[in-house]
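User: Run a structure prediction on this.
Assistant: Running it now.
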Amino acid sequence: MAFDDEWAGLRTDAAARMRLNGVPGGGGLPGLPESSDADLKSSAAKKAAAIAALEQHIQPDVQKAGSAMDEATEAAAKGFKEWATGAGIDGALKGWRASVKSLQGQLAIEKAGLSGANRLYRGTDIHTGNQFPLLIPKDAKGGKPPFPSRVSDY
């Protein structure tokens, strides 16, 4: 069988199995329940816990690990500075520093994304609700809708 024929068959099989809105029944993937519903679920408490873990543990630990590697590698580079090995260690150290900086940047992006998710959900909820003002009866006392969305509680 030629490569092109095999590749076309694999693509056809993958397209037949693909679902854009999820994996049916968890699909045997780790972390997915065997039966999952298609509802959007968001937990402000879990996002806050993830942000706290990023701020208090993950980012400081990445910084410590990066610094520990810097110190040990700089000492090795100084020891081998007259040899080509020293230049190689210096190059590896530059790559290491770039990787640590990139990882710190990605962690900051993830933290900002988690922080902004509640604002995004709440803003979308309010915007959608404002599109239907005549359909939502107002409470006589507070002027609030009698059935507020659970997203508005966050």
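The longest helix spans residues 84-130.
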